[in-house]
Specification:
This protein has 438 residues and is an alpha+beta fold. The chain has three domains: 66-93 and 290-437, Beta Barrel (Elongation Factor Tu (Ef-tu), domain 3), CATH 2.40.30.170; 96-129 and 255-287, Beta Barrel (OB fold (Dihydrolipoamide Acetyltransferase, E2P)), CATH 2.40.50; 130-248. Helices cover 37% and strands 33% of the residues. It has helices at residues 7-12, 28-62, 130-190, 196-253, 376-379, and strands spanning 65-68, 74-76, 78-94, 99-101, 106-110, 117-118, 123-128, 256-258, 263-268, 275-276, 281-287, 291-298, 310-315, 318-332, 335-342, 355-372, 384-389, 392-397, 399-403, 407-412, 419-421, 433-437. The strands form five sheets. It has a six-stranded antiparallel beta barrel with strand order 3-12-15-14-13-16. Strand 13 (310-315) and strand 14 (318-332) form a beta hairpin. It is elongated. The two termini are 77 Å apart.
């Protein structure tokens, strides 16, 4: 229960003083100015925010489609050196891989095995051919007989020539004697010491001696030419037989098959001790220092390929310089075949029929407007590109030129510094603008 305070007690209560004496009057003008500034700043910020929202909304509704940025590839158009090239898969082939054949029928004995390393002129196989060796022996005997015949003919020729010379000399003596008798007869006839008959006989004897001497000389000359002809014929027969023997000696020497190059043994065509006919393949040797790369490219590049063009061969993470050494004149199944020859060092460890990547430089120019090659080239046919400005990509008509493995030439529609979408444009068909969303 609460009881009332007596009057006397109320009079004793101390009165509390208020703070009216401590209060200071504040100037309302500064407060109003501060509020005005805050309100103006908030208004300007709101207007900027509203403008940004309007721009985003306009951008959003201005684009016909929106795609995530990570779904597209963007590349910048540049100006610089353009290298038009073509890449192809190549196969290692041996430029020098001679196959050795049997020069005569016989049996084969191998001195090496497939895969063995051999040196030039090293014996690698032997053909045992008794028939060829017997033929050589027969022809050598025939040659020896012809040598004897030539010597005999030479002796007979000298004998005949000596006999002919003797006849000429005797005819010469006879003519000298007849001429002396004729001179004596003329002296006697002048002195009327001999009859006219004896005088005429002396003149006839001198004339007959002259005729005999003339015919002896001519006959000796004819016999000499005949004998020389016979001797030459014998010598020609001997020389012909000598060539036959030399050819057989060469063939017998070729029965020992030697490696024509430094390399490895490729294949053994027949089994050991197998009988082979003449001109049958026996063994193949691969020259390891003369590898080439055989490649195929589409026939659209056929007119561009030229001998001597620079090329590159990739092997074990390294690039080796090469050059086009051959181009096939025919097209098979839409492909053109060619060969590359290494220009410098040849990679070690290459094996026949090994597959390698090759790159052939078809054209090289400076100051070309270009961009990285991408799927857009195939989907648009090289006539359309989407130029990226900010987060909006706009369709633009372009014209492309030459293409390489990694780049494409831009002829019209783009300038250096432009950024375009180089990924597949199939989903942007008949679309003018695309928004790239983060």
């Amino acid at each position: 229960m609460i009881s009332a305070v007596p009057q006397t007690d109320r009079e004793k209560v101390t009165r509390i003083r208020d703070t009216s004496a401590q209060d200071v009057q504040i100037d309302q003008t500064a407060i109003l100015n501060r509020r005005r500034t805050v309100l103006i700043g908030a208004g300007v910020g709101g207007l900027l925010l509203l403008a940004l929202i309007v721009m985003l909304v306009r951008s959003w509704f201005g684009a016909e489609v929106s795609v995530p940025l990570e779904r597209v590839r963007i590349a910048e158009v540049t100006r610089g050196e353009f290298i038009r090239d073509v890449s192809a898969q190549g196969t290692v082939v041996a430029a020098v891989s001679p196959t050795l054949f049997a020069v005569a029928p016989g049996t084969v004995h191998y001195m090496v095995q497939a895969g063995d390393t051999v040196k030039k002129q090293q014996p690698i196989a032997q053909i045992d051919s008794p028939e060829l060796r017997n033929e050589l022996a027969r022809e050598e005997a025939t040659l020896a007989g012809m040598e004897v015949a030539v010597q005999r003919q030479s002796i007979d020729t000298r004998r005949q020539l000596l006999g002919n010379q003797q006849t000429i000399d005797l005819a010469n003596v006879s003519i000298q004697a007849a001429e002396r008798e004729q001179r004596r007869a003329e002296d006697s006839w002048g002195k009327h010491l001999i009859s006219e008959r004896d005088y005429e006989k002396a003149r006839d004897d001198a004339a007959a001696a002259a005729v005999n001497h003339k015919h002896a000389v001519e006959t000796a000359q004819l016999q000499k030419e005949s004998l020389q002809f016979e001797l030459s014929a014998r010598r020609l027969e001997r020389d012909r037989q000598r060539l036959v023997v030399q050819d057989l000696q060469r063939r017998v020497g070729d029965l020992e098959i030697r490696s024509p190059v430094d390399g490895i043994v490729g294949t053994l065509a027949v089994n050991e001790r197998a009988a082979v006919p003449q001109n049958a393949a026996v063994i193949t040797v691969v020259d390891l220092t003369a590898f080439e790369i055989e490649f195929t490219v589409p026939e659209t590049y056929a007119d561009d390929l030229k001998l001597g063009m620079d090329a590159e061969v990739s092997y074990s993470g390294k690039t080796f310089a090469a050059a086009v050494s051959a181009v096939s004149p025919e097209v098979k199944q839409g492909q053109v075949t060619g060969r590359l020859r290494f220009s410098g060092d040849v990679p070690r460890g290459l094996r026949q029929n090994q597959r390698l990547s090759t790159r052939i430089v078809l054209e090289q120019r400076d100051g070309v407007i270009k961009v990285a090659r991408g799927p857009f080239l195939d989907t648009s046919g090289g006539r359309v590109a989407f130029v990226v400005r900010g987060d909006i990509a706009t369709r633009a008509s372009i014209q492309t030129g030459s293409t390489s493995v990694s780049e494409v030439e831009i002829l019209e529609g783009l300038s250096p510094g432009d950024r375009i979408i180089i990924s597949n444009l199939g989903e942007f068909d008949r679309i003018e603008t695309v928004r790239l969303a983060d």
